[in-house]
Design brief:
Elements: E1 5-9, E2 12-13, H1 20-35, E3 43-46, H2 49-56, H3 63-80, E4 83-84, E5 94-95, E6 97-103, E7 113-117, H4 123-131, H5 134-151, H6 157-171, H7 181-199, H8 207-221, H9 225-234, E8 242-248, E9 259-264, E10 276-281, H10 285-290, E11 296-297, H11 300-305, H12 313-316, H13 318-335, E12 339-346, E13 349-357, H14 362-374, H15 380-386, H16 393-396, E14 399-400, E15 407-411, E16 413-416, E17 419-425, H17 428-436, E18 441-445, H18 453-458, E19 461-464, H19 472-480, E20 484-486, E21 492-494, E22 499-502, E23 505-508, E24 512-516, E25 521-524, E26 529-530, H20 536-548, E27 552-556, H21 560-568, E28 574-578, H22 586-597, H23 601-625, E29 631-634, H24 648-658, H25 662-672, H26 684-689, H27 691-712, E30 718-722, H28 728-749, E31 756-761, H29 764-768, H30 770-773, E32 779-782, H31 784-792, H32 800-808, H33 825-839, E33 844-847, H34 855-863, E34 868-871, H35 876-891
Parallel strand pairs: 4-5, 17-18, 18-19, 19-20, 27-28, 27-34, 28-29, 29-30, 30-31, 31-32, 32-33, 33-34
Antiparallel strand pairs: 1-2, 1-3, 3-8, 6-7, 6-8, 9-10, 9-12, 10-11, 12-13, 14-26, 15-25, 16-20, 17-24, 21-22, 22-23, 24-25
Helix pairs in contact: 4-5, 5-7, 6-7, 14-15, 14-20, 15-20, 20-35, 21-23, 22-23, 23-27, 24-25, 27-28, 34-35
Bound molecules: phosphoenolpyruvate and magnesium ion.
Residues 723, 762, 783, 785-786 line the site of magnesium ion.
Amino acid sequence: MTRYVYRFGGGANDGAAGDKTLLGGKGANLDGMASIGLPVPPGFTIATTMCARYYEEGEKFPEELFAEVANGIAHIETVTDKKFGDATPTGNGPLLVSVRSGARVSMPGMMDTVLNLGLNDQTVEALAATSGDERFAWDSYRRFIQMYSDVVLCLDHGAFEEALEIAKEDRGFHLDTEMTANDWKALVAKYHELVVEEWGKPFPQDVHDQLWGAVGAVFGSWQAERAKVYRRLNNIPGDWGTAVNVQAMVFGNMGDTSATGVAFTRDPATGENAYYGEFLINAQGEDVVAGIRTPQYLTKDARETAHAKPLSMEEAMPVVYGELAAVFDLLERHYRDMQDIEFTVERGKLWMLQTRTGKRTAKAALKIAVDMANEDLITQEEAVARVDPSALDQLLHPTLDPDAHRDVLTKGLPASPGAASGIAVFDSDVAEKRAEMGESVILVRVETSPEDIHGMHAAKGILTARGGMTSHAAVVARGMGRPCVSGAGALAIDAAAKVCRVAGREIREGDLITLDGSTGEVMAGSVPTVQPELAGDFGTLMVWADKVRRMRVRANAETPHDCQVAREFGAEGVGLCRTEHMFFDDKRITWVRQMILAENEAGRRAALDKLLPEQRGDFVSIFEVMTGLPVTIRLLDPPLHEFLPHAEEDFASVAEAAGVGIETLKRRANELHEFNPMLGHRGCRLGVTYPEIYEMQARAIFEAALEVGSKTGAAPFPEIMIPLVATKRELELMKEVVDRTAQAVFKEQNASVEYHVGTMIELPRAALKAGEIAEVGEFFSFGTNDLTQTTLGVSRDDASRFLTTYVDKGIYARDPFVSLDIEGVGELVQIAAERGRKTRPNIKLGICGEHGGDPASITFCESVGLDYVSASPYRVPIARLAAAQAALKARG
Ligand code: PEP
Ligand code: MG
């Protein structure tokens, strides 16, 4: 029989410790901590496999689960010596449990939790009597009703919050901690009324009903809208499901010797090797995370650096702090990674409630990986494998210019590093809409909740008035790599009126502001930025990555500046120089238009003669920047109509500049009009019909190569690439043009350079006929943008309208223009590589579509043995690291 329930704590071990697939991350680590002897309240995990089963059965539990859960509860009862639902006023009191979700990977705040479950009108009295703390018992009960009504009964939580606020106001209190036992009792009565009003039935009194309700709610939350959005953003498959963890409650809210906190074994923002965290005396876990009370620091150092008054845990509870510090070290050694921990102190006794690999900024990920390798906790190769290549993006982007003027409005917590400027927006839906219109948006909220996930994703930066470093906004922003300033308490935000007041000034929706997520500063206006620092830990990790990678990494670049950036990021050549980008400046476009508008070859040649020196100049600069490295230059590719005006009002001026009549211009534009330009007169089809265009480009390349060769003594090695080839004959014809031009130039100058002529593989026919094409082509570069477009029959330019739906419905796991469709397009790449190699065993193979900078696609490229990947300059380091990881994976 399949087993669904696994026990932990109190010496029980059902043999699945560490199995995250089965137990979810939280369950696996609770089991793991218990098995190395750490103090974990006893409990059990209902496996993730039950989640799928629950949905299969029409959101019902299979019969066999009831007995298994009963055994689980019996286990907790035995270890704690308490009984679930026990109403006797003597003895150890009733057993209360927490019910929490826990998927394979953590999805912070996305799914449901219920605490203090097991309280009802009788057990609350028993808890009061046995704990000797009536206030605590009734406080726990009102928390439970509120949470259960929200999460399980799905009642309007605003009504409960309002009742709490009114109760406090009536007593003239500001804080929950001022409320007495009788105040809480009165509130519980009010809550009971609210439940009846909203739900039509009284609050469930049977503790077993309560438990099953909560378990169902946790499974239900797997399919909640916010969880689906989070999964989509983080590429988490929908069929993984969540586990449910049921665990004995321990209480951080039993007076001043009790506390609760969250901690990281190293600083998750900077990676510094120092304990980092927050705690609250006399509080439950949700109080820390919700950011309602401002938490205290964990260490004395941190408190002093922040000039904060309330004592740190190190000072206030030195003995328990010492125990906690020992646990931190043990956990880091056991899991060999930085841990994110939740703990509770109940009347002086430390309990561990959770440990997981801590989320961290890219900066911290780098530092921690490099430090741990240097501490011999992990190997250099493990360090390379640890850093998510995509996360490097955060480090490779500009930060605020330290010398620029900053009109600082206020300062909050530096919750997630990086800098961003944009317009202030106070609502997540508005943020999403305005971002879609192309505006840079800063989302400004009192605090964020999981409902804001889409707005946070759309925003360039996030600013909140409330919440600490571990608040929802901070954790999610760090995960997304968005700069975030949280807890900027001086902000008075009126979201309804779309305005925020600070330091006597007003920020309205649409006003520009700037955030510095590394200092916590919030500034008016936008502030200039500077390039990132690429030495230090980044440089070290890149050196380690370069040692293990097999594939070369090149850049897609067509200006000397981009080539320079690419070289600084470690590019080992240019994989794609798109020559058409050089044709768009004011002077040149006129000549390009004259060429297009010419009625005959002589007219075209006259215009091309004017372009030649300009094009040659471009290549000279690029060859100079890339000295010693290969440069692949692609001849003209786009449909010609892209160079002609489209708007009526532009015709007159364009006609005048090009020296033709407006009627001629309109007629030619009309003649060149295509219904499907992407499948039309473009790529080598231009070269076949107008060979003089490719001839001019080839001449510019060879003349430039000779010029740079004689100037520097190091002759460049141009690789001339023909786009959109479908047949061997096309390539043959184009190669003849290039070779003929080469011979002419070499003869004129009495000098020569070596070069290759190759092709892009970007049409399915080219992939299938690669064996034949390789008889002519000396290299292949996979143009996976066009290959995806033509294989899927999906237009690159129009796909966004429906691709999100396709991804949502699981038709493609990810946007195939972002991450290669390995099964389909990938198979064509594999076929072409095999057939090409069969004809020409040492043919050089690369990829230059956008996928060349996508880690998953790079892993695929390694598996088919490509020689290099080529990515945009900023993604070169990502590609270097991803290529290294792919090589490690391939080695196994
Ligand atoms: C491609 O098609 O993948 C490619 C690199 O060419 P372009 O994007 O310029 O069409
Ligand atoms: Mg292409």
